[in-house]
Design goal:
Layout lengths: L1 E10 L2 E11 L3 E6 L6 H8 L7 E6 L2 E2 L5 H7 L1 E4 L11 H5 L13 H14 L17 H13 L5 E5 L7 H16 L3 E5 L3 H7 L2 E6 L2 E7 L5 H10 L20
Parallel strand pairs: 3-8, 3-9, 6-7, 7-8
Antiparallel strand pairs: 1-2, 1-4, 4-5, 9-10
């Protein structure tokens, strides 16, 4: 659904991304992992049109696209839920979900229409933890806030949803609810990108793992073919196994001798 090839990005003399390749598949959760400073945030901001790539190619559903601004990403159906969630505590759920994209009737805001769309979106995601869409966000738990932020992202016919540390600072039960929601997004056919430092979450919900190391995309592996310790090894060393030439599970070329 989304493919980045040979992406480079520098800030002054500091090169943050070096020839990065990254692919998002429909109906699949791709975990983007890497240590602090590996380039994850910069790559996501390139996907979201916040940072322009210095060089490289971006394809969406097989056709070349340019992402010069967030509106370019939004027009393609790419939505990003950042770690701070970007929700307004003094507004209710409906007002937050339509913030900046309010629907208008002939004379005023279409409040009934927006409320129905918000309810329909939450219902389509099988969200049962929110009792009223007219609750102020300030009164919601961390898990409920994350749910609202995700629902806001998928409200606009999204095709790709990027989630930045969605379970950070959540309890066990709330984490389980959010991970179940992430899985439902993929099951609905969306391409989901999960950024997380929690390897248990990555192993539980992702289908593929792309590892960044010192600004480079070092490996893309199938989650089912790696262990917790191997993922940590990818993050900390950029490879798996003691031998530098050892192939990583899921990356061998078919038909190779």
């Amino acid at each position: 659904m989304l493919a980045l090839r040979g992406v480079n990005k520098s800030f002054g003399a500091v090169q943050v991304l070096r020839d990065v390749d990254f692919t998002v598949y429909p109906g699949s959760v791709t975990a983007l992992v890497g240590d602090n400073g590996a380039g994850k945030s910069t790559l996501v901001k390139c996907i979201g049109g916040i940072h322009a790539m210095d060089s490289g190619q971006c394809e969406f559903e097989g056709r070349p696209v340019r992402l010069h601004a967030p509106r370019d990403a939004a027009s393609l159906g790419i939505e990003i839920v950042y770690q701070d969630l970007a929700l307004c505590d003094n507004l209710d759920i409906v007002q937050n979900m339509f913030l900046g994209r309010e629907r208008r009737g002939r004379w005023r805001l279409d409040e009934p229409g927006m409320e129905q769309l918000a309810l329909r979106t939450l219902d389509s995601l099988s969200v049962r933890t929110v009792t009223s869409v007219r609750q102020k966000v300030a009164r919601l738990s961390g898990g409920q806030r994350q749910t609202v932020a995700i629902a806001k992202a998928v409200l606009w016919n999204s095709r790709v949803v990027v989630l930045d540390e969605p379970t950070a600072a959540l309890g066990v039960a709330q984490t389980a609810q959010v991970l179940a929601l992430v899985r439902r997004l993929a099951d609905a056919g969306l391409g989901v990108v999960l950024i997380s430092h929690n390897m248990n979450d990555v192993l539980q919900v992702s289908d593929r793992i792309c590892a960044l190391y010192l600004g480079r995309s070092v490996q893309e592996v199938l989650t089912s073919e790696v262990t917790h310790s191997q993922i940590v090894e990818l993050i900390t060393t950029g490879r798996i196994g003691a031998a530098a030439d050892s192939p990583v599970p899921g990356t061998e070329h078919k038909g190779a001798p």
